[in-house]
Amino acid sequence: MSKAVYDxxxxxxxxxxxxxxxxxxxxxxKRRQEKFISTVVIHEVYRLSLQRxxxxxxxxxxxxxxxxxxxxxxxxxxxxxSAELRQKHQLSMxxxxxxxxxxxxxAMCVSDDPHFKRIKEIKTTWI
Length: 127
Fold this sequence. Notes:
The chain has about 130 residues and is α/β, with parallel strands linked by helices. It is built from 7 helices and 5 strands.
């Protein structure tokens, strides 16, 4: 199987979607072997969970993410790629960091965010 970097929207769908068909596809996607997330996703999922459900849920979710996904830190190389992508495609810092992580790993970015589709330097997919 190919490498994949997951955007925060994947986890938002996992945790908050009521669509059973979508949730089934998400569960299938989670079986992928080479799964990565940026430290930015840790921040965004923690914050989203903290806002909606509180600190205990946020901490539990992050612990599970760290078990199930390889967490890629923001290195100097990723920061430089991110700045280039952010400037070129007018992205938020979070999106540009996630895209740069996918680019540096030569991995597919799993997201339904239309911003990622504009970035020719990476490939995207959605479940």
